[in-house]
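Interim report, section 4.2 (structural modelling).
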Amino acid sequence: MSHMTQPDRYVLVFLALLALTAATVGLTYVDLGAWHSIVGLTIAAAKALLIVLFFMHLFRSKSVIWVIALSGLFWLGILLILTLTDYATRSWLTY
Amino acid sequence: MSANHSSLAHHFADHEQQHEVAVLGMWVFLATELMVFGALFAGYAVYRAQYPAEFAAGSRALNIWFGGINTVVLLSSSLTMALGVHGAQVGRRNVAVMCLALTALLGTAFLVIKGFEYHGDYVEHLVPGLSFSDQDWLGREPHVHPEKVKLFLFFYYTMTGLHGVHLLIGIVFMTVLTILAWRGRFTPQYYGPIEVGGLYWHFVDVVWLFLLPLLYLIGPR
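Predicted structure of the assembly:
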């Protein structure tokens, strides 16, 4: 309740989000080889960061909210990384 | 102000504590939601690693304009959402009501556009089990296996479908908040439901931001 973010700042964040969207769609028409997904996911992560930090007020939230946000990411990391290391290394063993 | 008497639940010391608890609870819920969508993203990653050519071909078959325009619609709804929360925060009821209604409207526009896109997919024979035909697919891209393209399409419908259900819940949420705000239920001391609804709405938006590159923008077109 103590923090007030100015609507001007929201509009600025929104314009940045639009620019990033134009960039990510435009880059589909450029031949980036295997880099398409890496570039696409990096831009998506940048947009997500803008929304979470400013629209969801994480930037000015208390540390307990940061703990929950980061623990969510941490468990998502476990889910993705352990699953993928399993599938990626299955061919190493011959049965 | 009758709202001030009834808006503080008896087990909270004051409005600020009540507000913080509501926000904390929504963040915990969103962390569990991340696991729900995370499972789909993990499944997607596993199969995409196995069939990269088919996933890229399936992605090329989708209409990038629907995906791009819907991204702009959803980002706009996040802006109106943020402005609506701010309006409630500073006690400008009309701003809050207008912004919440606009948010629900933009969310509805997203689903309508999505409906046209699904229909387009059906017409283009891209719905496994309904209109997908291997012959049509081999005429389109003969070098990739139709069965594995279907796998990509299953992920496409499941991920966008689950996202759409979340958005539908968000639209109902926003409609109720609009009515309550219009009736003058919220004050600068008590606007927790709007803040919490905003957190949910932005989260659903963030999920879409990752669906866009993973489903529509896999490779060069």
